[in-house]
Amino acid sequence: MNRLARAIPAATLAVLTVVAGSTARSGAAPRTACTLVPASQASALLGRPITTADRPNPISSGSSVCMYLSAGRPILQLGLSVMETEAVARTTFKAQQQAAATHKNVGSRQKGNVVLSAIAMNGDAGMLNALLDAAAKNL
Q1: What is the pLDDT along the chain (139 residues), one digit of tens a residue?
Q2: Which of 43, 54, 67, 138 has its CA 20 to 30 A from that of 73?
Q3: Do residues 82 and 22 lie in contact, with contact meaning Cβ atoms separated by under 8 Å?
Q4: Domains contained in the chain, CATH given
């Protein structure tokens, strides 16, 4: 049951990131989810040694997922989705907010045409919100 509860939000994040069909702004420096909150900042933020693994999204240009690991175990995942327009981002953000209403271990933030999505693998919503806030601030 616990695996299923974790799989639902993860699947939601993956589907929303892929369905978004985003493109990166031309001329903008490439960024990834892991560059928004690098391992050193995440370590200071979360109070423990953190490593990261960055996963670009080949379907959605400019989008990526960053896995945050502690002692080799995944604890958080941050998704960066760059949408074509702010309206598309707003629609995606609203859909993610609806999903988050039923799952305390997921959350999202929107800033312009960018949607940030996060999943806490250990159910610590405090860490989740801290990561999302830091990522949004670093956009």
Answers
A1: 455 455 445 444 443 443 333 333 444 556 889 999 999 999 999 999 999 998 877 667 778 999 999 998 999 999 999 898 999 999 999 998 888 888 888 999 999 999 999 999 877 777 888 999 999 999 8
A2: 138
A3: yes
A4: 2-23+32-138 (3.40.1000)
